[in-house]
Write a sequence for this structure.
């Protein structure tokens, strides 16, 4: 007997398609104002940096701006010294020293650079201050943003953005002023006579400061700054970090000031969320060490103020180490920290020596394309052009000599004066009796020395070419 196999629909059911956002949507952070030791330290540090940045550009030194990147002439003036493109190795050296300094600070104390001295953080704190002055504290700003637009709200927003634009514009003009003398730049901007590039860079840095400190804020620290990504590699269990002590704080819960909270099974944390409200990156430090934490210690100040009001010991949130949190001993001196410190000290010492011993004159010798010629007296002549670069801040008279061959005669100016910062071209001739030439290509040496200062001197090699010697 034949039986039919039943037909079944095996078409797979439609898959349920779900989408997952790769990036979490940003929620606006409303920070609360606070006071405390670390906030005061941050204000002092920020004020110092602002005075340094906005004040240095107005200083004059020996007839020019004290700090001035003179790009058209390719000179960098920093007080009494002038650096040329040939000295840019020193700049690279300085950047390496700064990198090692940052590594040392990170190994020792985490991201304190970010919290206290990073320009992004400093300008963000200034912009947050402008918010508080014009729109009120955290709760007032949240309430203001929820209300419909009114004349009062418009004026408050206008005042806030006016301060933001003013600070951004001042920052941009100051920055460009380090490349174009600021005493010339400001009148040119006011009369619209500034160059197109000056206008472009002022506009660019105004927009960048306004956007970074006004809107992006913590997004720069979390997503855009590479330091946040690799700083965790330099952390160890003895690195100082801002951390919450769960052994003391848990379990969390509200209570009255005079309540016996330990009998209720509670820790010192009253779960007021003040540490979250003051955090510029919006994290909860009680969740542990996070990449978003910039080590600004705002949560420490906020928590200490609450502990003081509750008559509890301060330090529930503090600068501590992972070893200390786990009840182990913290090792302040450790091999990696010592290694960074030694390397940094050696590089700083070598850099200081390189700057102190930098020659204030440079000599380049350019030989004429004609290899040699014979003059009327039968002597062999070679022609050279000496490029003398006077790096000093004053005029210098130099004495020029050439030797390396017996009987070599220098024909040309033996004394020449170069103005401050001048590159002088000087044609010279050397001649010799052909019988005194040991070979067809002979090494010679040009010597240059300041007439009034023997410490200013240099020399340069070249070749004296003659006919083939048989």
């Amino acid at each position: 007997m034949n039986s039919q196999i039943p037909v079944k629909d095996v078409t797979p059911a439609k898959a349920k398609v779900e989408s997952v956002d790769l990036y979490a949507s940003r929620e606006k952070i409303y920070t609360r104002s606070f006071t405390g030791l670390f906030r005061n330290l941050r204000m002092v540090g920020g004020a110092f940096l602002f005075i340094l940045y906005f004040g240095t550009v107005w200083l004059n030194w020996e007839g020019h701006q004290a700090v001035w990147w003179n790009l058209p002439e390719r000179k960098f003036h920093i007080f009494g010294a002038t650096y040329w493109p040939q000295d840019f190795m020193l700049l690279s050296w300085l950047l390496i020293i700064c990198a090692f300094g940052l590594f040392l600070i990170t190994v020792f104390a985490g991201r304190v650079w970010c919290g206290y001295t990073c320009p992004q953080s400093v300008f963000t704190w200034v912009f947050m201050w402008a918010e508080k002055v014009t729109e009120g504290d955290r709760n007032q700003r949240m309430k203001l943003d929820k209300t419909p637009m009114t004349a009062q709200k418009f004026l408050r927003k206008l005042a806030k953005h006016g301060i933001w634009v003013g600070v951004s514009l001042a920052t941009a003009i100051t920055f460009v002023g380090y490349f174009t003398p600021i005493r010339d730049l400001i009148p040119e901007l006011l009369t619209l006579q500034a160059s197109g590039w000056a206008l472009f860079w002022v506009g660019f840095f105004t927009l960048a400061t306004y956007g970074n400190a006004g809107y992006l804020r913590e997004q720069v620290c979390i997503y855009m700054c590479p330091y946040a990504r690799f700083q965790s590699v330099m952390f160890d269990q003895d690195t100082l970090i801002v951390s919450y002590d769960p052994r003391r704080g848990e379990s969390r819960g509200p209570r009255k000031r005079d309540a016996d909270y330990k009998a209720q099974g509670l820790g010192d944390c009253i779960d007021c969320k003040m540490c979250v409200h003051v955090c510029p990156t919006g994290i909860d430090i009680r969740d542990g060490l996070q990449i978003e934490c910039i080590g600004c210690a705002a949560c420490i100040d906020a928590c200490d103020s609450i502990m003081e009001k509750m008559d509890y010991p301060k330090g529930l949130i503090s600068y501590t180490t992972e070893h200390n949190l786990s009840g182990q001993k913290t090792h302040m001196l450790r091999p990696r920290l010592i290694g960074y410190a030694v390397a940094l000290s050696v590089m700083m010492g070598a850099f200081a020596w390189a700057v102190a011993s930098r020659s204030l004159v440079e000599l380049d010798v350019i030989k004429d394309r004609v290899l040699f010629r014979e003059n009327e007296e039968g002597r062999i002549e070679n022609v050279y052009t000496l490029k003398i670069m006077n790096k000093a801040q004053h005029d210098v008279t130099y004495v020029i000599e050439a030797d390396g061959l017996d009987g070599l005669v220098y024909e040309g100016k033996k004394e020449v004066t170069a103005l401050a910062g001048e590159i002088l071209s000087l044609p010279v001739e050397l001649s010799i009796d052909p019988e005194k030439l040991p070979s067809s290509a002979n090494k010679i040496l040009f010597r240059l020395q300041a007439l009034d200062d023997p410490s200013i001197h240099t020399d340069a090699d070249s070749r004296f070419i003659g006919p083939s010697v048989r």
The chain has a mean pLDDT of 92.
